[in-house]
Each structure stands twice: as structure tokens, then as C-alpha cells.
Amino acid sequence: MRARWFIAAGLLGMGAALVIGWQHRAARSAPPTAAFPAPAADAGRRIERRLVEDIAFRNDMLFLLAATLRDRCQPQQVGLLARMANRASLPVLGAVSAVTEREPALDRPIYQYIQHRADATQCGQPLQMPLAGGRSMAVDIEQYARTFPDSYFDPQRSSEPRDFGSQSLQQRAGNACNSVVYAVLPLGGTDWRCSSLRASARSRVRGLCEAELRRQHGGIGGELDMAVGQGMQGAVVAAIAALPQDCR
After folding, report:
1. What per-residue confidence (pLDDT) applies to 223?
2. I want to staple 56 with a disulfide (CB 3.0 to 4.6 A). Which of 48, 95, 97, 232 is the partner?
3. How far is CA 189 from CA 108, 192, 200, in A?
């Protein structure tokens, strides 16, 4: 029953308004002529302290930085990271929103921080993110995009998600079946055994969805409708049930 609810959620919850709306606020299609001003020093220190202490917040901020920078440096792929984040049901903006709810005064400074950092980073230059103990993490933006959405939780990941084969980010983001795949098999967790099994299961679920799309519509282009969801529901529930209980 739970898997059925996830399928329904995947079919009905495909709007990317929140993420794309934020990006329309932050992204630029051409290199800036002048750097966006940094937030006030005190606000900047508070943001960087949270980046060190709160991994979920750092994941969110890195995603927003990467998406903003990549939209400037790769104008032919504007919005792809946001679209894939929506397909993959990633919790983008959740941690940022939690911080601004607790500290409303950081709302504007967080936007300033992201835009300033994106403006100050040259295309092809790694993003430096602060870590504990005065260390930093260098994130290659194109590698981050190539390994997305898995890189949202593992920013320095070097291998492409195994369940995608050799598909490009554009192909992944354009595949409506991924909205179902990640609704029933969301990313997250640290158990390597489950990660491997779930990656294989994602590939199977995507195949089931694409087969049903071809059967009903003759191809895999476009978005899904409820008839497609109903047609593949039994097979998808069975694929999820085949996983060990702890990995579902």
C-alpha cells in the first residue's frame, strides 16, 4: 500500500515551482559585469558556521551555488540541475528554509552569499566549501552535475549513478519516469549494500515505466498520466517488495 501511495505522489507531485522560482531569483545567463555584494560580515560568519555544523544545510547551499554557477557557465543547460532535483525528490531548500525559519534575519544574507560566491567563482573553477577544523572541500561543478542526483548527498562523488548507464544530465532530467523512480526509491542512507540494491531496483522501475509508456503512448517522451501509473502499479510494487525489508 505504501508503494502505491509513493507512485501516486510521483505522478501528481511533479511541479518544480519552488526550486525553479529560487533559481530565477538567483541565476544569470551571462557572466556578471560586477560581483554581487557579499552579506554583512556578521551574517557571513553565521552562514559559514552553519555550513560547517549542519550537513543538510551545506548540501542545500552547495546545490544552490552549483545550480546558479552552472546556469551562468552553461547557458544551454539552464535549469537542468533544478529539474533533476525535482525528478529525484531531493529535499532541496528544506534545510535552508529550516534555518531561515529559526533566523529570519538570514534570509536575505543567504541569497546574497550564494549570488556573491557564484559571481566570484570563475567557470571551471572548483567551489570551496568550509569544513570543520578550518579545512575546506573542493567541488568540481561539472563532476557534481555529471554524478547528480547522487552528488547532492555525496558532493565529491566521482562515479556516475550506476542506475543511469551513460545517460546525460539532460536525458535524466527529461525522463518523466524518474519522477516515479525516486518517489518509490528515494536517495539517502549510508548502507552501501542497500544503496547498491536500490540502484539496481531504480533501473528496473525505470524500465517498467518506460515499457508502459511505450505500450500506451508509443514512446517515452512527455510527462506521465494516471493511466500509465495504474498500468505499471502492480509490477512496480512487486519490484519494491523484492528488496530486503530494510532497503525498502
Report:
1. 84
2. 95
3. 32, 8, 16
